Predict the structure.
Amino acid sequence: MENAKEKIGLEAWLTTHSVSSPIQAWSQRVYFGCKEFVRQPLAMFGFIVIALLLAVALAAPLLAPYDPLQQDLAIRLLPPDGEHLLGTDELGRDLLSRIIYGSRISLYIIMLVTIILAPLGLTIGVIAGYFGGKIDTFLMRITDVFLAFPGLVLALAFVAALGPSLDNAIIAIALTGWPGLARLARAETLVFRSHDYISVVRLQGGSHARVIFLNLMPLCLPSVIVRITLSMSSILLTAAGLGFLGLGAQPPIPEWGVMLSTGRRFMLDHWWLVTMPGCTILIVSLAFNLLGDGLRDILDPRSEQQ
Amino acid sequence: MNTASPANTSNKAILDVRNLSVSYQSQRGRVDAINNVSFTLGCEKVGIVGESGSGKSTLGRTIMGVLPESAHTEGQILFNDENLLNLPERRMREIRGGGISMIMQDPKFSLNPVMRVGDQISEAFLAHSHSDKTLAKKQSLELMESVRIRNPERVYKLYPHEISGGMGQRIMIAMMLVAGPKLVIADEPTSALDVTVRMEVLAVLDEMVSNRHVGLLFISHDLNLVAKFCDRVLIMYAGCIVDACRSCELPDSRHPYTQGLFASLPKLDEPQKRLAVLQRCETWLEDKGSV
Amino acid sequence: MTQLTQDSELSSPQSKPKPGRSHLVIAMIEVRRVSVTVLLTLLVLLTVTFFLGRVMPTDPVLALIGEQADESTYQTVYEQLGLDKPLIVQFGIYIKDIATGNFGIARTTGNPVIVDIRRVVPATIELATLSLILGVIAGVPLGIVAAVRRNSAWDHGVRFFSLLGHSTPNFWLCMMALVVFYAMLGWIGGSGRVSIFYIDTVDPVTGSILIDAIIARNWDLLGDALRHVIMPALILASGSMAFISRMTRSFMLEQLSQEYITTARVKGLSRMQVVHHAFRNIKVQLLTIIILSYGGLLDGAVLTETVFAWPGFGQYLTAGLMNNDMNAVLACVLLVGVIFVSLNLFADALYRVLDPRTR
């Protein structure tokens, strides 16, 4: 009448119901999380695409057949063929090489924005949620002002004020993104703040800083990680939008949005100029969203629980 | 309240459960919720008592056919000579509410918060009869009176958050009887109520069940309550029925689990230094009783 | 039989005043609260945009008079613009100007910005409203189906479609639409609201060419206008459709796991009736979402209008950006902020008023 098959060794350790140490509990969670993740084809697709993106960006010099900045007006506006797999643009540059190098730019933008955005949003959110009262109201009023504008418009305003350049675009996007993250962190903190184990740390003499950085922040991490992964998709889209408007990366940098902008003049007769870079943006953005959704299902299941 | 009904043999069995097993697939393997359970129920009050996880709530939901899709069932549940487990969904819908109904536990959650309580009763009536809204409302009001709601006209228009727990449960009772079922399952109907209100709601339930000659399956964790209220008692443990007897014979039961349950009840009139703790034994599962 | 008194059975009567009156009172309180918050946020917005304007890299004087002008002209204009006064006075003048609708002169058109804005807003409203309608008509049923048939092909399809909507750069989609449906297939019109032949062929009564055409019974114009508006509207709608269907699905799932749904099933209700039970509980949340997504459409409109050369608010903004027209840009940004904030607060207030569980 026994239900469980006999399991041995590592597998037994990872699936037993009676857990004897925190390491074992944590390992079990990671194990079941990974099992669950691998079972979802869409999430795996996202993961693979992102991994490919990283690989392509790192190996760009090896993969790109041509120099992305080299112009040759004699071969401009060629459709895709054996020589140039994705065709050439209006200045004779190979589109495939430009797209490959563009992955570096995009990754650079995404990573830099995330590095600015994540600590800023998380810290402000947790502080606001933990202390409450006047600090909370003050910080939330500030985020309210930022949230008063839809994302792109705010980024446009910042870039317009700071001057069009790639770095200013990065700053602008980071500035538009942190309020959302701060709100999320604050909401999570409010839930956890009332839990008894936080009071225990305080009662044992833990300082505020200790509670915030060692206890509350790690608790918020799962949903923050999910949110950041998902927002990487919109960072990419906003950056492309800014590039398209000429407010972000400037030509001749092979940023995908800029390529769309310059190709627009010729697109009606030379469809490959805009199709290829656009598809790339779509696939990468989709991959981030799928990855984020997959992570959400295993890290933050209560939002989707039956 | 302790009406000793005549022996089971004089009523035809309304419900006949034979070798019922229900299991779920989880990440860690198969979990058995109900394990080879059999019993019959006639026009009487039968209580099912067990601790959390004994499978008693699952039993109620299996009979109603509202288990999640991942559940796997075996065996037979015979009602009106039909096996409920094999019926198409359409026929099950006719039976739910019209043949068998279920009183849920907490009216705070089991009533639709944005719908007037009276309309929720009428809806149950309309689902099982081809009448119009006026007749449905009339029936609902009548039923509300018989569950001892004074001024039913006023209460009809109220929302669930405007009525108390006791009244909510009486609304629930009315809702589950308005379509004229033959069998009523009560899933912990008084567990969410204040102690002072419990007796009142049980009195109403008793009256309704007796007057309408319906069978009652009373699911609870409260052994004392079930012993006083029901005619027969079935004790469930880990998905099996381990003991079954008439409620008057319950204190004399020989089964160690039943004895243990009784022993662990705190008694006001006998001084005790320590409360008895139940000692569980795997062998109980091998010796399954069926009634 | 115990006698029960009526009062003990009902939760305290004072908590819920008579239905008709309470709604009005609640609404009034909400309106006052919303106005105060709007004004407060406006003030902050104005401060921010004021300082943004001061931080702009372009010199406003040079922007007006050009680089060739001489020193004395520069000085005159400098004083005219009030740039020599202390900052706080400038701010005061700024607020006064905004309050009277004076956003300055637009560099590109030479008109007062407020006139330009009045000209372009109706086009955006037409586009945004149509997009919202499409988004709701498609998004809500899809969300419901996805929730009811959870984990089925429908559910996965809707979720994927919604995901796709979130991941597509909408300006690229606009470009692809023009390449495929205009250049290659010729099914839709090109840029703008109407073809060249039809410009100014109808009296601008409502600001919406579609409605004006219907009023004037000019079916040719209506057809042409539809051919021009359908693609931008669909693409803009895809964004809000993705959002609305995702939120609807989420709301429905939350409701479908509640106890009262089991009660409804146990009563023997049909599947449609059970879904309706759940839907009743999300109506107010849905309304909030729909209002919010109207604000989100403003975001998408900026790029969509630019690609389709739709003569609306968004295109005016991007044209201003590309031409360094700071007055126009600031005015647009401020206006977008005001609209967005008002929509958010309105949705919030509506939620409180309509929820029957208001205490």
Notes: Chain C touches chain B through 27 residues (CB under 8 Å). Residues 170 and 286 of chain C are 24 Å apart (CA to CA). Chain C has a mean pLDDT of 80.
